[in-house]
Every structure is written in structure tokens, then in C-alpha cells.
Amino acid sequence: MATIDDVAKTAGVSASTVSYVLSGKRPISGPTRARVERAIEKLGYRPHAGARALASARTNVIALMAPLRVGVNVPVIMQFVTGVVTRARDFEHDVLLLTQDDVSGLDRVTGGSMVDALVMMDIEADDPRVPLVAAAKQPAVLVGLPEDPEGLSCVDLDFEAAGRLAVRHLAATGHTDVALIGSPPEVLRRHTSYAERLMRGLRSQAQASDVTVRVEACDSSPSGASQAVDTLLATAPDTTGIIVHNEGALPHVLSRLAERGIAVGTDMAVVAVCPKDVALAQRIPMTSIDLPAEDIGRVAVDMVMTRLDGDQPSETRLLAPVLTERESSTPGPAADG
């Protein structure tokens, strides 16, 4: 039976190069990859995943901690999960999904040899899981940004920049009174990082652009969205632009505006911060800032595999927000109560 050394000798490369061709863990030039693939086919080489894992003392498993907490949007969470799982497959790794909201599961996984590495989601500003991750023997990447990211590897959308971009867009199209219909109260009470960062960017840009801004926490249910819209219009009737950062509430916000006789794009500009498919699924064209959840999941795996392969320094990657305009944002007359 052919071995990896036989393939390397036939292709005229090192055994490590053959391994990188098989795993995709390092970029390999096209001609070199072609030689290795021809050698594999010629020799009938079939790598044995269990043997490779045993030889490297690896499990070929990445733990993904995605707690299904109250207030999280599960379909969006699953987009992140999809990105992690599909990219991990490129590295011949499986994913162990942890959905509980406690530290004990994390301690159990990192304290043994169940997994090679860890990706952790739904990061809070002062997250009790972070000290455990920082002390773990396995490399880890956070999807999110704690208040003190020193020494940690993190990736996320730059939500602070997204908040600034949304306000800048509305200000540039003539809006001086805007509002955020934001995350559910439970998410805000946990000081979830993405929600706080978006509000920080929104408020700083509102001050810089001389725009009045109001924030309404919003339950994702139809009644919660209706209440947020009604409260906003009652307390800030001059509002002509709304930023919605709540995927579950978004369709109900649009429905309530329609019930109130307010036309999106004419009477009220709406900018959604959400995955692109969520914006495109709405009943009217939606201006949106894309949350590239699958891309972020894939980047998280790339980062954690780089750390698994060597002593790489910690880093933070924040993806720049992109706004796509799909409807008129010209301010209309303030809505009647």
C-alpha cells in the first residue's frame, strides 16, 4: 500500500507538501498541486484520517460554542454555523456544536482532548467564558469582540462602523431625526458585544452629523415590533429614518409601518442591518448593511487553523460594512400619530 512518503518521492516534493495539498492548510502552487495529485492517482494512495489524527495527536474536531440564548435569532446563528462547518470540512475537520449557555460545557471540552480548537460565538462585553478560553491549551477564535480583547483572536463585522455608516447614509439623504429599532431587551441586558458596538457607532456618528437619534429595544415578536414602532412614533413623531438591527422583528416592523399608512422609501427611510438574504426576503425593497455571517464563520476557521498549525500572534479582524441601497431614502413628511 502506498504511503505519503511514496507520493512525495514520486511527485518530487516533501511529505509536508503532500499533506498540505490533502488538507488545504497551506496555499500550494497550481503546478505543484497537479504533480501531487497525479502521483496520488498513479499510486492509488488513500489517506487514512484516523491514522493522520493519531500521528499528529489531533482529533480533527473543532468545537463551536453557539449558545441558543433567549433573544438570539436562530436562523442567523445557523448561517454562522454553516460557514464554520463548511470551511472546517475543507481542513478535514468535523465540528462539535455546543449550544448550552453555561461555562461547564466549555470547561469540559477544553479541559480534555476532545477537540483541537475552539470557535466561540455570541460574545458579551464582559464574557465569563473568556478567561477559560484564554487559559485553554487549545487555540481559540471569538466571533465577537469583548471589552478587553488583549491577547485574544477575534473576528466579526465592524458593528461600530456599521452604526456610523447607517447614520451617515441617512444624514446624507436629508434625515435629521432617526431611530434605531434594535436588539431584544435580553440581548442588551447581557451587554452582548455586537449590539453595544452598533449603538456606540450610531451615537457617535449622530453627534458628528448633528442628527437626533433615539433607540428602541425591540422584542422580535409581531407584538414587540408593533409596540416598538408605536412607541417610537408617539414619542418621536418627527422621525423620518429608522435603522432596524433585529432580523426577527424586521418584517413585523415593516408590516406595522404599512398598517400605520407609512410608506417605506417615501414617508420613512428604513436601513436594515442583517444578512443579505434576510433583506431580500422582505416584501418591499430594503436598503441594508450586510451581515456576512457565513463569511465570518469561514474566516474564524481560517484563523483558528492558522493558530493550530503554529505559534501565531493574536489578532482582531473586523470586516468592513457594506451598504446596498434598494429604495429611496428621501425624507417625507413626519407621520401622523
UniProtKB/TrEMBL annotation:
The keyword DNA-binding applies. It holds the Pfam family Peripla_BP_3. InterPro entries: HTH_LacI, LacI/GalR-like_sensor, Lambda_DNA-bd_dom_sf, Peripla_BP_I. Keywords: DNA-binding, Transcription, Transcription regulation. Residues 2-56 form the HTH lacI-type domain. It comes from the Bacteria. Signal peptide: none annotated. This is LacI family transcriptional regulator. The lineage of its organism: Bacteria, Bacillati, Actinomycetota, Actinomycetes, Micrococcales.
